[in-house]
Amino acid sequence: MLIRCPGCEGILDSRMLICPSMGRCLACGVKRLTGDELKQITRCCFKPICSCCGHCHGCHALQYTDLLPCECGFPSSPTAEVALEKFRID
Ligand SMILES: [Zn+2]
Ligand SMILES: [Zn+2]
Ligand SMILES: [Zn+2]
Ligand SMILES: [Zn+2]
Fold first, then answer.
1. DSSP structure string for 30-58
2. What is the pLDDT of residue 24?
3. pTM of the model
4. Do 27 and 82 contact (CB within 8 A), yes or no?
5. SS3 7
6. What is the pLDDT of residues 59-79, one digit of tens each?
7. Which domain holds residue 38?
8. 40 C-alpha vs ligand 3 centroid, how far in Å?
9. How does residue 13 score in pLDDT terms, banded at 50, 70 and 90?
10. What's the CA gap between 34 and 28, in Å, rounded?
11. Which terminus, N or C, of the chain has the lesser number of Cβ atoms within 10 Å?
12. 19-75 pLDDT, tens per residue?
């Protein structure tokens, strides 16, 4: 599902666990990755990962889907799913 990021208003795929431009959890907004950590994982196929939609510009695969779950439980807890529904746009 598509959601609007509560922080930067970007339109994001909720399978991503974080906002690719800010590193914040999509459900609770907690900062999960620092700017430096984000930079370390901003490449796939040796091409940059788009910081607005989180897709690799080489293979178009969605990134940031395999991070550890957030403290709020996202993506595994139902409460986090409910929190995410607030930002749903479709
Ligand atoms: Zn954002
Ligand atoms: Zn969270
Ligand atoms: Zn994009
Ligand atoms: Zn790629």
1. -B-S-HHHHHHTSEETTEEBPTTT-BBTT
2. 93
3. 0.86
4. no
5. coil
6. 999 999 999 999 999 999 999
7. 1-90
8. 18
9. very high
10. 16
11. C
12. 998 899 999 999 999 988 888 877 899 898 888 889 999 999 999 999 999 999 999
Residue 7 confidence (pLDDT) above 90:
no
DSSP reduced 3-state for 78:
helix
Q: Element (H or E) spanning 11, and its range?
A: strand 11-13
Distance from CA of residue 13 to its chain's centroid? 7
C-alpha 9/C-alpha 88 separation (Å) is 12
CA 81 – CA 26 distance, rounded (Å): 10
Q: Which residues keep their CB under 5 angstroms from ion ligand 2?
A: 25, 27-28, 30, 70, 72, 74
Ligand in closest contact with the CA of 26: 2
- The answer to whether 53 and 47 have CB atoms below 8 angstroms apart is no
